[in-house]
């Protein structure tokens, strides 16, 4: 594989963080000698069960926590350097947005913090609100938003400065499958425009769908890292994919393969993903004009975000269609596919690693950083439903 000549956007070398107790005794080794490299223009996934050290690693990358030892560099600088911070967008795991500000006021506030001039700011705010599907409810206080809507405004806030590097901590938490797909499409579009994305999640499907490379953490350490293909390829199985076969053709195929000495040949019908089935069902229901209360559709991607950065490395344009595009297009139906699977050995090393991680992990609740002071939550109003109706 060709090595990327551009310097990495994130470098962690032997990065460690130990939390101390009141008596300054080591209490938790949250991150333990982590080596990571995130290259320009790639989507890198940081995976791991609860308490594995993902958020602590991210906080050190953002300069919010001091490493106990090791080194971290962001965009070639210390993460505390303001020039690095100016080019960084961050969506935290928990929403720290001001509950009594509306979506528009929130983006105004962050836009001003970055010193973005008024015209550019207003232009960006309009585009971002449309992009995340909140333009119709932009004047309502964020405290009244649903979880998914709060993620959307959080994402818009992370993009207001048109960052080079975007750090997303659990971006799809609280989102339904449509919102999740939209966020994944957005991440792919941002990558196409040359942005670098560090995506932290324990939703394996999300990471598998959008990342180029990923690292799996457990107990503060990176246990496995590589491209999705490297990590997921089964060395013990070959799949031959063809159009749907009749039962007669299936028998002939098996006989032909077995006559060549292949063993454990099996044929099964190709499967679509549950996500595809779900989105198809929604598209059909929408086409039939079925009314429902649910999350809204996101709009087009803000153009200021999709102008390719000059230093974008090897981002490949044009591969991802948005869900919205899918929803309005009549896709030609592909013929059903069947897979001819030739299995040789049974063990599945990579699946085993993941299941071991899940089994062995004692569920440790991370201690949350103190939240900024905020007033009591306003009572949830039934009006939220009408917001959702509006969105659809
Ligand atoms: N401020 C803190 N003080 C003490 N221990 C902490 C602190 N923050 C995190 N930890 C501990 O460090 C370990 C790693 O936590 P971290 O939040 O990085 O995990 P995570 O992988 O992000 O988990 P999750 O998926 O639940 O968000 C946990 O054992 C957690 O309890």
From TrEMBL:
Residues 10-244 form the ABC transporter domain. SMART domains: AAA. One of its GO terms (molecular function) is ATP binding. InterPro entries: AAA+_ATPase (IPR003593), ABC_transporter-like_ATP-bd (IPR003439), ABC_transporter-like_CS (IPR017871), ABC_Transporter_VariousFunc (IPR051782), P-loop_NTPase (IPR027417). Residues 331-392 are annotated as: Disordered. Residues 334-347, 360-371, 377-392 have a biased composition (Basic and acidic residues). Gene3D superfamilies: P-loop containing nucleotide triphosphate hydrolases. Keywords: ATP-binding, Nucleotide-binding, Transport. It holds the Pfam family ABC_tran. This is Putative ABC transporter ATP-binding protein. It comes from Phycisphaera mikurensis (strain NBRC 102666 / KCTC 22515 / FYK2301M01).
């Amino acid at each position: 594989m060709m090595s990327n000549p551009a310097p990495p956007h994130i470098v962690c070398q032997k990065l460690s963080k130990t939390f101390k107790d009141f008596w300054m005794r080591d209490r938790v080794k949250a991150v333990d000698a982590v080596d990571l490299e995130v290259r320009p223009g790639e989507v890198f996934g940081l995976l791991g069960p609860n308490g594995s050290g993902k958020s602590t690693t991210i906080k050190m990358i953002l300069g919010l926590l001091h490493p106990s030892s090791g080194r971290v560099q962001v965009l070639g600088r210390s993460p505390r350097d303001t020039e690095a911070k100016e080019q960084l967008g961050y969506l935290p795991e928990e929403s720290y947005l001001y509950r009594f500000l509306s979506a528009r006021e929130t983006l105004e506030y962050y836009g001003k913090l970055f010193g973005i001039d008024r015209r550019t700011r207003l232009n960006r705010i309009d585009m971002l609100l449309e992009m995340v599907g909140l333009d119709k409810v932009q004047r309502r206080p964020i405290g009244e938003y649903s979880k998914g809507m709060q993620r959307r405004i959080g994402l818009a806030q992370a993009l207001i400065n048109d960052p080079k590097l975007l750090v997303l901590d659990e971006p799809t938490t609280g989102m339904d499958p449509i919102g999740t797909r939209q966020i994944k499409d957005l991440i792919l579009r941002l990558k196409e425009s040359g942005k670098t994305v560090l995506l932290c999640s324990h939703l394996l499907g999300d990471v598998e769908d959008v990342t180029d490379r990923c690292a799996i953490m457990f107990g503060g350490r990176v246990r496995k890292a590589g491209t999705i293909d490297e990590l997921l390829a089964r060395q013990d199985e070959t799949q031959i994919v063809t159009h749907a076969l009749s039962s007669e053709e299936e028998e002939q195929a098996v006989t032909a393969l077995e006559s060549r000495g292949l063993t454990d040949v099996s044929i099964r019908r190709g499967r679509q993903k549950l996500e595809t089935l779900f989105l198809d069902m929604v598209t059909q229901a929408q086409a039939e004009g079925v009314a429902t209360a649910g999350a809204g559709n996101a709009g087009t991607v803000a153009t200021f975000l999709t102008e390719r950065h000059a230093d974008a490395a090897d981002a490949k344009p044009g591969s991802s269609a948005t869900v919205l595009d899918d929803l309005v297009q009549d896709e030609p139906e592909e013929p059903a596919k069947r897979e001819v699977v030739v299995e040789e050995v049974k063990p599945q090393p990579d699946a085993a690693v993941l299941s071991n991680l899940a089994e062995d992990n004692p569920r440790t609740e991370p201690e949350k950083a103190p939240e900024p002071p905020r007033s009591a939550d306003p009572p949830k109003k039934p009006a939220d439903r009408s917001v959702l109706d509006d969105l659809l």
